[in-house]
Each structure stands twice: as C-alpha cells, then as structure tokens.
Amino acid sequence: MTIALFWLLLLCCIAIFHRKEEYALFDLAHTLPLRGILATLVVLGHLDTVVSAQTKILMPFHMATPAVAVFFFMSGYGLMLSFSKKGGSYLQNFILKASIKLLIPLLVTTCLYQGLLFILGDFSIKKILIDLASGIETPLIHSWYVYALFLFYLLYYIVFKYNNELKKWTGLILILLMLIYYVVIRYILNWPFYWWITCMAFPMGFFYSRYEDKIKMVLNDNYWGILPIIIALLSIKLLSGMYTPFFAELPYILLGPIIAIILYRIPLPIKNKTLNFLGSLSFEIYLTHGIFEMLLHASFESPYVYILAVITATIVTSWILHNAYKKITNSLLYKLR
Questions:
Q1: What's the pLDDT at 70?
Q2: Distances (CA, A) of 84 to 123, 167, 170, 204, 307
Q3: Which of 139, 309, 316, 336 has the most CB atoms around it within 10 Å of its CB?
Q4: Global pTM?
C-alpha cells in the first residue's frame, strides 16, 4: 500500500497542474484501461512475493492488495450507477445474473485447476476443506476475491430489493452489513487479512457514485485538497507499518475515490488497444494467474524467465477462456431477457 500511495502522490501532483475545462467521465470506456492495469498489478504483486528473494525488479509494482481495493470500489460504484439509472428493474434476476457472470467462470476454472492437481498427484479434498474453513486458500488459488465479491452482491441485493426508491438510510444499512462481515471475518473467524482489509472499498464505491456530482463541484476550486489527503494517508500507513489497526485501513477505503479524482484530470488513453485488451480479460487474468504461478514455479532457474512465462501463459489462457465463457454466459443471460 505504501508503494501505491507514493505513485498516487506523484500522479496527484501532475494532475493538479494538468488543467482541464471539463472533467473526464469515470465510466466503462474510461475505466476499461484501468481494469487492465489493475489486473496486471495483481499478477505482478503475487509474482513479486514468489521471486522477491531472487530479484527486486517487481517491487515497484507490488500493489496487488490496493488493486483489489480499487476493483471493489469500482464494483460498488457500478452497481449504484446502474441502480440510479434503472431503478428497481435493475434487480430483476440480479442474483441469477451475478451467478452466471461470476460463479460459472469460477467453477469451470476451479475444475480445470483441480483436474491438473489430480493429474500431478496433488489433489486432496481434505486440504480443500481445511483451507476453506481457515480462509487460508480457496479451491482455485487467489480466487478469494470472487467469493467475497459475490457475497457483497448478495448484501447489496438484500438492501435494495425492498427499496425501489433510493433513500438516505439505504447506504447506511449496506455499511452496517459490511461491518458485520468485517467483524465476523476478522475477529470471529480470524481469517487472513486479504479477506477483510479491502472490503469497505465496496460501499465506498456506492457512496462515491451517489454523490459524485457534488464531489466534482467541490473539486472545481479545491482540486489541490486531494494532495494533503494522500499525504495524511501515506503518513498513517508509514506509522502503522505491518500492523493494521482499524484506522490504518483508511488508505484502502479511500484509494478508489482518489484514483477516480485523479483520472478526472489525467484520464487513461481509452483507445490504447493493449490496455483495453487486458481490461477485457481482467476477470480471467485474475482467475488463472495463480495456476501458472504455482505450476511453473520450479520450472525455471531464472526468475525473469519465470515471470515472463507466467505472464504469457496467463494472457493466452485468459483470452481462450474469456471467449469460451463469453459464449456460455451470453447464451444464459439472453434467456433471462
């Protein structure tokens, strides 16, 4: 997180002096390249954990957890934006649609991974159950994010199902449910940090989307105000170190809004084919990179060759699976219309 905040500090300084008459939109077209960058950061962050003893080349990009926080923020933001435009009709078959989009790719990829482990003689139902019960790992390596996101979707649905009109207290109920999740996962189940440290970024996306126009009005004459906020968050992170008291999680909660504000001034190149390509594959990249991280770990002496092999295999496999999953999910979603 410290590295991410230093990068944001630099980008914020650039954005302050990058005057624009109108703010860029934080819509799908402008965030698709961001998804590509975030997916890449998740891969590089996990790879750095593996190769850090051999090389520090990936250290400046070790931002997997902050990247996930932004993904959660964008999910909450998108749900609120869609609800604002469509109202109660957006919730029709919502859980079924979410299941098709999230759980079918997760299930198929998990089966492929466990099938490989079975061939390699490393398949164990007992290990799967123990890891799930302790939160250490999911049946598909690094896929905890999908499990958590689907649960957040369920909480969102519970809150909005019986509120066809957006009310002031609706968001507070969502916050309350997310806090219950936080307390249960962190203090009762005592699961690893990644299950809870980024979770409040999801309702932050909801609130930010709801008050985005007002935030832009404040920024018109006070854009520089984001700079001391980043400095304060960086100070909190530096002072807390590896210890994570509740207040030290503020950087993860506010990371998404800060990035959105920065991208108002210096938007990503929406016509960049590489970033858009990676953005379109971001979900599959997240699902598959851990497989090759594990399978190829002992295959190369050089960490650089290992990094290149994992990235290449991940992108190629993600492209194949993306096209396969797209046909399956689109066919099922079409039947729900």
A1: 93
A2: 46, 11, 13, 16, 42
A3: 139
A4: 0.90
